[in-house]
Amino acid sequence: MEPTGLSPFDIAAILIFATTVLAYLNYHLLHLPPAIALTLMGSLAALAVIALDHAAPELMALEQLRGFLDRISLRATLLNGVLSFLLFALALQVDFPVLRRNVWQVASLSSVSVVLSALLIACGFWLVADWLGLGMPFVWCLVFGALISPTDPTAVEGVTENARMPVSLKATLAGESLFNDGVAIVLFSLAVTAALAPSSYSWEAALLLFAREALGGALFGLAIGWLALQAVRRIDDYKIEVMISLAVVLGGYTLAQTLHVSGPVCAAMSGLIFGHHGVEQSMSRETRSYMVKFWVLIGDILNAVLFLLVGLELAASPAPSWLLAVAALAAIPIALVARLISTVLPLGLLRKVTTAPPIAFDILIWAGARGGVSIALALSVPRGEYYPLIFAATYAIVVFTVLVQGITLGPLIRARQAADASMPPPVLPSASPSAPPSAKSPPNSA
Questions:
Q1: Residue 446 above 80 pLDDT?
Q2: Which domain holds residue 413?
């Protein structure tokens, strides 16, 4: 069957089957964190298709793979709703009291750090492109800086899933990845607009749009999270309460698009409110168990499928020229330096004016993984002269952060804990929130 003839059900069946097979093989053979294993094995699977295409060109295996990926459209799959599911699922599992104690750190990392990182990466990448004679305008370098700056919630959760990290640090990383995607998506849209229509670009309009998308998404998420909270407080039926949570994500995203506010920010905020005040404080033990397990399963399935897609998308992309490859490899240290400066500088200043708890900067910087969000944004860059360079650099950074940083994060944490006795104790990975289940309030008691 031709790829264009596949139905949505066919595509879902192929992805779930392939993901299951690779996850099973990883469980028995590689024993790697799922995110790392699926990215690696997805890339190896695509490379096998490329080798088959060279060995038997009449089969057109590579063309079939690219047709399949075009049919899926990773950008539409990730940004148009799926990211909201992932952020909501992750928000339900965040330790809210710990996150609240680190609120200023999370706010700084998901706003100031994203903008600063985008500017630093744009400057560094512009210098490299100019040195190599690629002649990339600064505004297109800013497009690249915006799409590669946010830490991806799927990637961060994947590389930290099996890491014994301090509770405070894990909550900070989770909170950062929850909110910086929405900020980065808005920043990316503004940069693309400036690149395509510089004469009609207005900084006043850009700031207004940024405030409406980001702040509007947060306020709207608070509103629908509060409405859902009132609903679950008045019933005790786990099936209906799980359906309410689904309605929050699906309805919230659709309404956010209609209101022109950020759907991802809305999902993250509604998930935090619903997770803490609803799941942990207003549900019976049975309902809480069903709710947590349902959303953990949804998050795990979507994470696995998306990492497989990222691996296939990266490896099936056209090979860059040697000049683009050099620029792409140079983007890795640029992104690391930008992550260092954009993390240490704002948080260092914050420590001087607030009572923010101490934090392990080396682990925070190294755990800042990029993933599907950056790939999806890179795929949405208008096809033109600068698209190959932007995608090649995104390719290099995503592979490095997921594979290299993901594999070495555990040893780094253990070495840091051995060297620093004052470092907070680690937290073992857990599939459910740490707070004990509470008794269900009687109907209409709230």
A1: no
A2: 74-420
